[in-house]
Amino acid sequence: xxxxxxxxxxxxxxxxxxxxxxxxxxxxxxxxxxxxxxxxxxxxxxxxxxxxxxxxxxxxxxxxxxxxxxxxxxxxxxxxxxxxxxxxxxxxxxxxxxxxxxxxxxxxxxxxxxxxxxxxxxxxxxxxxxxxxxxxxxxxxxxxxxxxxxxxxxxxxxxxxxxxxxxxxxxxxxxxxxxxxxxxxxxxxxxxxxxxxxxxxxxxxxxxxxxxxxxxxxxxxxxxxxxxxxxxxxxxxxxxxxxxxxxxxxxxxxxxxxxxxxxxxxxxxx
Length: 270
Ligand code: BGO
What we know:
Blueprint: E1 3-9, H1 15-23, E2 27-31, E3 38-44, E4 47-54, H2 66-78, E5 82-88, H3 92-102, E6 109-114, H4 116-121, E7 124-126, H5 128-135, E8 138-141, H6 150-163, H7 174-187, H8 193-204, H9 208-214, H10 218-235, H11 239-258, E9 259-261, E10 266-267
């Protein structure tokens, strides 16, 4: 079976190092359609039926940079069989911000925590079993530079692609979740179920590109705008910032339980 695995991660997370390690010299370089952002694809070593697509390094799936737009268009339009999300283990909090968004796409995700050689040298340990439980997807420790764990990460991504199980939904806070549920019902209920979540969150954030793509009518927009405004009034903040804060609160809770200083035996937040 031919499978496509997208490699996604923050700039400097080690994505290029991992891509080279997974594909060796088996790479094809081009451009993403319509833009001057480089597109790299390659065949996974010893798996000629598995294509790895290297997405541009990004911090978020927002519509503000060319890299983000290229990456998210690929993910929502092409829908790869799985996402291998490379995360810099020395900077978990910032990197997991993208992870929370990738997990909403309805595509199976495997998280590869990179730079584990540095994490360990610094005397830290990451409880990957707990992180995996909290995120709802498989988590693998790797060092792309040293090559350790890289094959396990690839095998895990293949398995996730074959199993086709999207990541379970992480709920936002009460009224935010309520508004998103309304949006799902009003705007995206005819989409495949696993795709609805990401679109509904983007509509809540008033993401123009998504609203335009879906061709949401003025009447429906006015209807959901009432829900969004009510949440903004309650939180005294704008919708996009509310979602950003919700993500960081969620990440903060996760990290508290998984990042441990080996020497002191204490939990740390980064
Ligand atoms: C330089 N462990 C360690 N210790 N370093 C790693 C690992 C790892 O597991 N993985 C990657 N790196 P990219 P993006 C560098 O280039 O793959 C290092 O942006 C240097 N260069 O070697 O490029 C990797 O594609 C001079 O480091 O990331 C690279 O995601 C001094 O992380 C950097 C020190 O990796 C970014 C490092 C001239």
